[in-house]
Amino acid sequence: MSEQAGRDPDVLTTAELAAKLGLSAQTVRRMANAGQTPALKTGKDFRYSWEAVREVLRQPHREPELSVPKEPEPKKGAGYRAQRRARSGAASTASEN
């Protein structure tokens, strides 16, 4: 990589960042498009701050939380009494078994 006069060495092209990270340029672009990597869109491509990317990479990876299935909501449009009957009916059938 040749240094261009007046160019900030902290600012990298997609190809340069890909080489530093050991990834393909396509993967780096996908990460930028998904918001996983801080990037500045320049025309059709991106520019990356090496320091900003390093800060993101230093953060611990968080697994998505598993959601606990909720009790199904009564159908929309059902009246208050119908909703109460549905709830109490479900509770009484569960207690009978």
Automatic annotation (TrEMBL):
GO molecular function list: DNA binding
Residue ranges of every copy of the Helix-turn-helix domain listed in the record: 11-59
Biased composition (Basic and acidic residues): 57-76
Chain positions covered by the region annotation Disordered: 57-97
Skewed-composition ranges (Low complexity): 88-97
InterPro entries per the UniProt record, alphabetical: DNA-bd_dom_put_sf (IPR009061), HTH_17 (IPR041657), SinI_DNA-bd (IPR010093)
Keywords: DNA-binding
The name this protein goes by in its record: DNA-binding protein
Source species: Actinomadura logoneensis
